[in-house]
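Q: What would this complex look like in 3D?
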Amino acid sequence: EAQVTQNPRYLITVTGKKLTVTCSQNMNHEYMSWYRQDPGLGLRQIYYSMNVEVTDKGDVPEGYKVSRKEKRNFPLILESPSPNQTSLYFCASSSAGTANSPLHFGNGTRLTVT
Amino acid sequence: QKEVEQNSGPLSVPEGAIASLNCTYSDRGSQSFFWYRQYSGKSPELIMFIYSNGDKEDGRFTAQLNKASQYVSLLIRDSQPSDSATYLCAVRGDQFYFGTGTSLTVIP
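A: Here is my prediction, written as C-alpha cells for the whole assembly.
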C-alpha cells in the first residue's frame, strides 16, 4: 500500500530533551515536507526537500532540523524542544516530476512539550 | 509571499443543500490546485485536483478553476452530515501553498 508513515503518533516530552519524529514514504517521491498545525493557523510549512541532500526552510523553521540522506526518509529533529513547539505535525510527500501530483500526508504526530 | 486565501467560516448548510467553498491565490505561475478535507485531529485527505480552466466533476463534488481571476472553488452537492469538516485549498507552483481552511457544518 502506498503510504507515508510517521512515528510516533503521540509524544509527550520535557523542555530541552532532544527528539526525532521519523517519516518514511514508499512511493519513490522526490518531494517531502513537514508541517505543523495549530488551531486557527492552518498548516504551516517547517521544511521541505526537493530531493536527496536538498532541503529548504519553510515558513516556520526556527527550532527544527531535517535531513534527507535517503529518498524515502525525512526525519524531523527538535534539538531542544520548547512548549511553543507543542503542536500536531504532518509529514507529506509528492512526485516532483508531475505538476498535478498531490501531496500525500502521514497520519500525524501529536507532540506535547511540558 | 505567495498567498492562498480562504474564508475561515464557519459555513453552515442544511442537509441536502449545496455547499460552496472558495479560494483565491496570488501566484499566477501556479500550475495545479487541490482540495483536501480534514476531520478534527486527522490528516488531510485529497478530494479533488484541477489544473485546467473550467469545471471538473467527481460524484457530488465539482471543482471550478478560473486562472484569469486566480480563483478556485469547490461545490458539494446534496451535502451530508459526514461532509462536516475543514476544507483546505492547496496550490502547487514551485512548492505547495495552503489556505487556512474553511470549516463546514452540515445540519441534519
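A: To summarize the key features: The mean pLDDT of chain B is 94. DSSP finds no helices and eleven strands in chain B.
Q: Very helpful, thank you.
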